[in-house]
Amino acid sequence: MKTVSENKCFGGVQGVYSAPSAACGVDMTFGLFLPQEAEDGPVPLLWFLAGLTCTHENAMTKAGAQVWAAEQGIGLVFPDTSPRGEGVPNDEAYDLGQGAGFYVNATRDPWAKNFQMWDYISDELPALLAANFAIDAERQALTGHSMGGHGALTLAMNFPERYRSVSAFAPIANPTESDWGIKQLSAYIGENKSDWSTHDASLLMRERGFDGPVLIDQGTEDQFWDLLRPEALASAMVDRRQDGRFRLQKGYDHSYFMISSFIEDHITMHAEALYS
Ligand SMILES: N[C@@H](CCC(=O)N[C@@H](CS)C(=O)NCC(=O)O)C(=O)O
């Protein structure tokens, strides 16, 4: 593992590291914020999964999460959104290939060799973090934005034993019915729609729900509203009687300004679940 940078931040350390990934077949870069408490022992961990076009850097620099994580004594990890670099397949469109891993394990060429983001996020990176940093792998929670909100919700509902709480900002909520989903799921895991259901938050919410705190924030002026399909997730939560909050935030758009406006509430909710 290589240390790319380490900066003191709100009494803790904001690091950027890079390590070879067996799942993705290339070196993967991630940001990790550890609060001061990590000097004395393992701390719980909140994942921030980012959206289309993002690297490890967007949420790390724009979400404003560290101040609240420092206050609560929890770690934050900011993974990349796909493998990247020379030799890794890509597409001309911004919403497929590098920067658009969609948090699935690809089974189709040319993607299958590198695009194993599901395994990378749920297995490989947590093990690497627990082995190298003061992270308590028994206490993890997930949040994310847009494509990353989709990743957070689908991982949480598939692995409820691994994650204590889940939240999302403007998640891609119903990818099996959206152009942010149909194109990518077809390319990565094939045209057979029955293989897609584990990667659709609204379908999972209807079938399984989540036995822990859930918080969704969605801006009413989100320019990608039609692609995100928040109504599908909201109605699935109601139909299931899921314990949780789905908040429509008047006037907010899809940007990190929306995220930084509400991140405190998300981190407070996760901290309560992680320390209970
Ligand atoms: N580039 C795309 C949109 C990409 C986009 O908005 N990405 C969001 C996530 S879905 C993001 O976080 N962008 C990076 C940033 O704001 O820092 C477009 O112009 O249509």
Automatic annotation (TrEMBL):
Annotated GO CC locations: cytosol
GO biological process: formaldehyde catabolic process
Superkingdom field: Bacteria
Protein name per the record: S-formylglutathione hydrolase
A GO molecular function held by the record: S-formylglutathione hydrolase activity
Catalytic activity line of the entry: S-formylglutathione + H2O = formate + glutathione + H(+)
EC number: 3.1.2.12
InterPro entries, A to Z: AB_hydrolase_fold (IPR029058), Esterase-like (IPR000801), S-formylglutathione_hydrol (IPR014186)
Protein family per UniProt: Belongs to the esterase D family.
Organism: Halocynthiibacter halioticoli
Free-text function comment from the UniProt entry: Serine hydrolase involved in the detoxification of formaldehyde.
Keywords: Hydrolase, Serine esterase
Coiled coil: none
Active site (record annotation): S146 (charge relay system), D222 (charge relay system), H254 (charge relay system)
Alphabetical list of Gene3D superfamilies matching this protein: alpha/beta hydrolase (3.40.50.1820)
